[in-house]
Specification:
single chain, alpha+beta, eight-stranded antiparallel β-sheet, three-stranded antiparallel β-sheet, 8 helices
Length: 302
């Protein structure tokens, strides 16, 4: 197999210019330098699909080729996906759950569907029931199917648009409107017995890097894999703790709301401390430290 990767995060066999561009667009890119580099690579592979891509090994996925072939066949048969290439998104270093994503392209190199394969754990028990927020018009993927195979949990969802996308920074009012849209998207799901009273559904990783603006102007909220039950306002607190201007956002909260955010802030502090345990890269430690500082500012503002 003649595969290539960019930054060892996305792998595939880009036989067409469209597939090569989509491969570059799938790579995580944030910050001015990262986005500038991605933009240059995107235009470079438009001319030469293999330019700037290096060999990724004979089989980069953390499962056997036989297991993947069976999963792919099941997805294509169930959804009637047209024959096309598959681009794989490898597990990021800062996420404890072991998983990978697979983007199915049609013959023209455009996204058809996105599959997430979990090697440890189940598909999130919560998923949005509508695909766009009424207040913000922000869109998100919809779950198409879920199944288990050979001990792996697989979730198939609609794909985001093709092409480059950039992170979106929202003001406090827009974030609060988005949180209300997320609440509406879940509807009123049945509460499991193990969920504390008063907890509500959450996106689970509401941060500027998961809000992406595409060339059409549409904004999509990605990565719903952390969807679960949490204390009220968990998504609002998550956005504030991960935002570069988190302390300023916290300072703009109404005083009447701040006491209600304490449980959510403590919830994320506990999660962050657990995620920072063990041997993690220095940049992950710095990220968790910055998030903890933002949460401390939020608690102090209350």
């Amino acid at each position: 197999m003649n595969q290539f990767s960019l930054r060892s995060r996305v792998v595939g066999n880009p036989s067409s210019r469209a597939a090569a561009r989509q491969m570059v667009a799938m790579c995580p890119a944030n910050g001015r330098r990262g986005l500038a580099f991605q933009r240059m690579a995107y235009h470079a592979v438009r001319a030469v699909p293999s330019l700037g891509l290096r060999p990724a090994g004979s089989w980069p996925l953390p499962i056997s080729s036989q297991s993947w072939s069976a999963i792919e066949a099941r997805i294509r048969d169930a959804r009637g996906l047209a024959a096309g290439e598959v681009l794989w998104h490898l597990p990021p270093a800062d996420q404890p759950q072991v998983k990978f994503g697979a983007l199915f392209l049609d013959p023209a190199g455009l996204p058809q569907a996105f599959a997430r394969v979990l090697l440890a754990g189940d598909v999130p028990r919560l998923a949005p029931r509508v695909g766009e927020g009424a207040r913000t018009a922000i869109r998100w993927p919809m779950r198409l199917a879920e199944f288990s195979h050979d001990g792996f949990s697989v979730e198939l969802s609609t794909a985001a648009p093709a092409g480059l996308h950039v992170p979106v920074h929202l003001g406090l009012r827009a974030v609060m409107d988005l949180c209300a849209d997320i609440d509406d998207a879940f509807g009123v799901p049945e509460r499991p017995a193990d969920v504390p009273a008063g907890w509500t559904p959450m996106h689970g990783d509401l941060a500027h890097w998961n809000l992406r603006r595409y060339r059409t102007g549409d904004i999509h909220l990605l990565d719903w894999e952390g969807s679960d039950w949490a204390p009220p306002h968990a998504d609002l607190v998550r956005f504030i703790m991960t935002a570069p201007d988190g302390p300023q956002l916290a300072g703009g909260l109404a005083k009447s709301l701040r006491p209600d955010l304490e449980e959510a802030a403590l919830f994320w502090l506990g999660r962050g401390a657990k995620a920072a345990e063990g041997d993690v890269p220095a940049w992950v430690e710095r990220k968790h430290a910055a998030q903890a500082a933002n949460l401390s500012a939020l608690l102090a503002a209350g």
